């Protein structure tokens, strides 16, 4: 490396576990343990990809093309789109870690990959917050909700969420950079332009923005909505779909469980500017918490299927309809008559007429 890159490396190594991975000669036992941690992180990412791509694709297919368009299906559809786009880029991160933190994909994919990850984090939590607020006002203030809860207004909210998530994730496009370290090209946040103090400030500001707007404020809002719902539903004996309530609540809980370690360790990472004694802990905790956060992108479709019987029924009915048309085209009307009858009866039995499930 040249002098400028060496200075950059020395300045940055205090808070980057990937650079630290190459910067010091660790004991062989410690390095072996670190590699095991990275492979566990990779396993979580691969699991998220394998389960999340088909799962979110099914949700997009059903809610975007098969089911009646409602306000709630619009929320869940965009939540699935955010997860699906992120998962499409996940193999880049998997390759990065599997290659020993070597980024062979160039600068622009480094920026794009990080931006998509940030976009997914912010848009997912914002849509979960919107779903919680919508659920709250729909039950507690039904008259006002009925007047303003339209598809047109919902589309405005959806566009606003995507715009806000893009703005908050935008710094990744500016600060993300590549650097060659020990014959490895790394993809990292390059805050090193105008001195140490500005570097610290940028790192702190971006981390706290992620924590406050991508985790704490939305989580407090969702918790408030559900605590109020539980209290007022019991007090007023309001009618409420228990399946719908538990489905939405489980999605929120899954988000909190998956993303809490990531944000806590991100805040802890800020202390390394002043005290590097816990650096070995973060070397193991950061990749594991990142893998757990990525795993959240595959959980929502699984939760829909496990909790919601009507989602299962709609899925079976939609698949039955596709198979019915396929059998008709391939076998012809004469040879496919029996299959058509059985599939039609299955569809009729599973989903009543004019019934669109709990996504209302």
Rounded average pLDDT: 76
Biggest beta sheet summary = 2 strands, antiparallel
Strand residue percentage? under 5%
**Count of helical segments?**
14
Radius of gyration: 24 Å
Question: Care to count the β-strands?
Answer: 2
Protein name: Chemerin-like receptor 2
Family: Belongs to the chemokine-like receptor (CMKLR) family.
Keywords: Cell membrane, Disulfide bond, G-protein coupled receptor, Glycoprotein, Membrane, Receptor, Transducer, Transmembrane, Transmembrane helix
InterPro entries: CML2, Formyl_rcpt-rel, GPCR_Rhodpsn, GPCR_Rhodpsn_7TM
Describe the structure.
The chain is mostly helical. The protein contains 14 helices and two strands. Strands 1-2 form a two-stranded antiparallel ribbon. A hairpin with a 2-residue loop joins β1 and β2. α4 packs antiparallel against α5. The chain is globular, with a radius of gyration of 24 Å. The N terminus and C terminus are likely disordered. It is a multi-pass membrane protein.
